[in-house]
Design brief:
The complex is a heterodimer. Helix content of chain A is 54%, strand content 5%. By secondary structure, chain A is mainly α. Among the domains of chain A are: 185 residues, no CATH class; 78 residues. The longest helix of chain A has 16 residues. Chain A is elongated and about 80 Å long. Chain B folds into 2 domains: 308 residues, 3-Layer(aba) Sandwich (Alkaline Phosphatase, subunit A), CATH 3.40.720; 50 residues, no CATH class. In chain B, 33% of the residues lie in helices and 13% in strands. Chain B has 11 helices and 12 strands. In chain B, strands 1, 5, 6, 7, 8, 9, 10, 11 and 12 form a 9-stranded mixed beta sheet that branches. In chain B, strands 2-4-3 form a 3-stranded antiparallel beta sheet, with no helix packed on it. In chain B, a hairpin with a 5-residue loop joins strand 3 and strand 4. Chain B is globular and about 70 Å long. The chains are: A mainly alpha, B alpha/beta.
Chain lengths: 469, 378
């Protein structure tokens, strides 16, 4: 039992990080299959089977079939329901780094293509991903590469490619590139443009397409990061991919997303990684595997640093909302009113397809302020407190199965376990148990028992401990 | 409460989505105006004229009334360097007062630090709306952010008065900084306890409040009413913030209908707020800033307008010297900035004036730079 509990607790951790959390029964089943097997399954999603009936969903939300409207909701629906949880989690990972915002692009069909690109390339070679994002129509429009011409460059994409997408401004206190590198990089990407210009409202019905226009490409020699040649964008990507700074940058992002909150990206030049050993391990794997993200993830999930990092990250609003819905078993199928779910994330500070800037979302404690904290607690409490939800009913039944009477401490411990092995401070645990004890003996076969469970669940999700994943 | 009743108070009304400056303060006698706006133009006889050149949109009569009483400063041609036509980034610039780099600190967040350096009042600043605007964010600053004043609080879903009281009692003890050990335990404790304390106090505001003013039924008007309720309750709140839902003024299409409706609601709510404050003998304590993130394209697109740059903002109240400030940007084609009104005064000049002359703060420290001030505060 002790061993089982350990395995399930570890599985709960894995599924919170490599996915959006899982109900207890799934954790048990996965733990029985084993940790390594689950990591392999997450890393190798079934290409044509995500366990969802999207066809049915598209008949309910007809706008989903062409993605002219409702794309954030569509993406959220996949986060909730896809069996391939890591694949979805990686889409969110890359969306938060290789950022475009609908506030500018205003073309959901184009944003849809971007997310599908992340799905296809998000766990492959980082070099390939950089090439794809450079051809991504939403990105080309978002960072104005379509306005960058031979003889009249627009540096926006060239700069962000280096600063925010691959190397970062600096490492270990040293700059990674110069202003000249930015200009040369931008020159190499001239002619990388789009057809079906991403239009503003109300026309955005068609996805923009990548076009290479050789007539607008600067064929002169460029010197980039110390190498000289008649570089095109692909050559630039090759040079970027082999930089130690790129290995560091991606490793830190993976660490911050999957292990523990890092400093915010703008501080990385001056702030060393919080766990240099793990970063070094990831950097080594980056080069060993030929820039392969999946290989880096495999190394990461198998590491003790990952396994021991429970509750070291503040859950993002999207993780909070999607995790809660997966826990209670809501929105497993389409029904009206889904926009509300999307709004909830927004009010907690994270809006799919609208990161606050090309820098992406600031994470960790910056998710929390007086407004977002109250919103997060109340949203989560409202869902876990609803005993009509199948997942909540399941928890009530599990607790009732323990016998006709349950001790307050056992009820608190068991409920935390069923939520995915949350660990409360001892004082918190005693306060919650004392709160339950106030109701007298807890008979599990009474009608009121579900209300007690509902109250307790609401209190647990209101704890500081529950803010973390 | 350490604040006395006469401490200066700032109300900020944020008009998200970018209202069309050209149809807000209208250069009705400029022949170019009609050329740019064949469908969207407001006829000269409908414009609420300020002088022989410019005037308010007809839907803004309640604000025009305040203007006629000398209580409205119209800041024409307001903007920021290197205009960006993204709502999100642009609003961010207005929030952080940082046009050139990303920042997570808001200008009002820093002002709140100065207004309440020892964090004596969890309600020094209150936001009404969904989510906290970055303008109010700063390290160590807790701002109550209220979606619905009537139901605001933590764990509002717990049924039964006794059960909820018990739950909140446990909550306050669970959030003690002495309990727990997570990476940001102290910060979570402070934020959670401040939110709880703030909610306790705020909940009393609607009970204390009575007024003859009947606000409109739309969400914005209700939030403006909440502003009046919280201010008149005397909690010592110095900054009150609210606004339209994101995108409301983003009139790419069908502008005439939605634009007039929105300005109608906003103007009425603004005037209602002023009258409400007056009824509570609180009109002299409050200055109102009303702004949007950028202006819109001068040339209409047929039924609406696209994103532009130069804009117009309003500062209102008894303490305000009413009139026109800044210059109206030229409509001459070669004087436009990529088809947009060219800004001629930095938005931080307006901020600096409010910070220094109204709130009595060190504007250079808050804005991290020196900006020329207007003289719109008496």
């Amino acid at each position: 039992m002790a061993n089982d509990n350990h395995d399930i607790a570890l599985m709960a951790h894995l599924m919170r990080r490599a996915g959006f959390g899982a109900q207890y029964a799934e954790l048990e089943a996965r733990a029985a299959k084993g940790y390594e097997a689950t990591v392999d399954e997450l890393l190798n999603p079934e290409v044509n089977d995500n366990g969802m009936d999207l066809d049915l969903a598209e008949r309910c939300f007809i706008e989903w079939s062409h993605h002219t409207r409702g794309l954030p909701e569509y993406v959220a629906f996949r986060f909730i329901n896809s069996r391939n949880q890591l694949e979805e989690k990686m889409c969110l990972f890359w969306h938060g780094i290789l950022c475009t915002a609908d506030s500018k692009t205003q073309s959901y069909p184009t944003s849809y293509d971007e997310i599908e690109m992340f799905r296809q390339y998000g766990m492959g070679s980082f070099r390939d991903l950089l090439l794809e994002i450079s051809k991504d129509p939403a990105m080309i429009f978002f960072l104005d590469n379509c306005l960058s011409h031979k003889g009249a460059i627009n540096e926006n994409y060239g700069r962000e490619l280096l600063e925010l997408f691959s190397m970062g401004v600096g490492m270990d206190g040293e700059f990674n590139y110069t202003e000249d590198d930015v200009k040369e990089c931008a020159r190499a990407f001239t002619g990388w443009t789009i057809a079906n210009n991403v239009p503003g409202q109300p026309y955005g019905r068609y996805a923009a397409k990548f076009v290479y226009n050789p007539d607008d490409h600067d064929e002169g020699d460029k010197t980039f990061l110390g190498e000289t040649g008649n570089f095109n964008g692909e050559d630039i990507v090759d040079i970027i991919a082999k930089q130690p700074a790129t290995a560091r940058f991606i490793s830190r992002h993976l660490y911050s997303y999957f292990v523990a909150d890092e400093a915010q990206v703008p501080a990385w030049m001056e702030t060393p990684p919080r766990d240099m050993d793990t970063i070094k391990m990831l950097e080594d794997e980056y080069f060993r595997s030929g820039y392969n993200i999946k290989s880096m993830l495999r190394v990461l999930f198998r590491s003790d640093a990952f396994k021991n990092a429970r509750f070291q990250r503040v859950k993002s609003p999207i993780e909070t909302v999607i995790g809660t819905l997966r826990l209670v078993g809501d929105w497993t199928e389409p029904k009206p009113g889904f926009e509300f779910i999307f709004d909830e994330m927004k009010h907690m500070g994270q809006e799919i397809f609208n990161p606050p800037s090309v820098e992406g979302w600031h994470t960790g404690r910056e998710w929390i302020d007086g407004g977002t904290l109250v919103h997060r607690i109340n949203f989560t409490a409202d869902f876990v407190g609803d005993v009509k939800q199948p997942g909540v009913r399941g928890i009530v039944e599990e607790l009732a199965n323990r016998g006709p009477v349950i001790a307050p401490e056992d009820m608190v411990d068991d409920t935390c376990r069923l939520l995915g092995h949350y660990e409360l401070a001892d004082e918190t645990r005693q306060m919650l148990a004392a709160g339950m004890a106030k109701h007298g003996t807890l008979h599990t076969d009474t009608a009121e028992f579900a209300d007690r469970v509902s109250e307790l669940l609401q209190m647990i999700v209101a704890t500081k401990e529950y803010i973390y994943a | 409460m350490t604040a006395t009743k006469k401490d200066p108070v700032l109300v900020v009304l944020q008009m998200s989505g970018a209202y069309d400056a050209l149809n807000t303060i209208i250069p009705y006698s400029d022949p170019l105006y009609k050329d740019y706006r064949p469908h969207l133009k407001v006829e000269p006889e409908e414009v609420l004229a300020i002088d022989d050149k410019v005037g308010f949109h007809p839907a803004m009569a309640p604000i025009k009334d305040l203007y006629d009483e000398g209580k409205v400063a119209v800041i024409q041609g307001i903007g920021y360097p290197n205009p960006i036509r993204s709502h999100f980034r642009s609003m961010d610039i207005w929030h952080t007062a940082e046009p050139t780099k990303m920042s997570t600190e808001g200008w009002l967040g820093r002002a709140i630090q100065d207004l309440d350096p020892n964090k004596e009042n969890v309600l020094t600043a209150v936001n009404f709306g969904r989510g906290l605007p970055r303008a109010l964010a700063a390290p160590g600053v807790s701002v109550a952010s209220v979606g619905n004043l009537e139901t605001y609080g933590v764990l509002t879903g717990i049924d039964g008065e006794d059960q909820r009281a018990d739950a909140l009692d446990i909550f306050s003890r669970m959030y003690s900084p002495m309990v727990g050990s997570g990476p940001i335990n102290d910060y979570l404790s402070q934020t959670g306890l401040d939110a709880l304390k703030g909610a306790d106090i705020l909940r009393t505001a609607p009970e204390i409040y009575s007024s003859s003013i009947e606000y409109g039924g739309d969400m914005f008007s209700q939030w403006v009413k909440n502003v009046a309720q919280v201010h008149t309750a005397g909690f010592g709140t110095r900054v009150l913030y609210t606004g339209l839902n994101p995108g409301a003024f983003d009139t790419h299409a069908n502008q005439p209908t939605s634009f007039a409706k929105l300005w109608g609601e906003v103007s009425r709510a603004t005037n209602d707020l002023y009258q409400d404050l007056k009824e509570h003998d609180a009109n002299q304590e409050v200055v109102i800033l009303l702004f949007t993130e950028f202006g819109r394209r001068v040339q209409e697109n047929g039924s609406g307008t696209d994103h532009g740059s130069g804009s117009v903002a309003f500062v209102m109240g008894d303490a305000v010297k009413g009139g026109l400030y800044g210059e109206y940007p030229s409509l001459e084609p070669d004087k436009l900035d990529e088809g947009d009104l060219r800004w001629n005064n930095d938005f931080r000049s307006t901020y600096a004036t409010i910070l220094d002359k109204w709130l009595g703060l060190d504007d250079k420290a808050v804005l991290q730079g020196e900006f020329e001030q207007f003289d719109f505060i008496k």
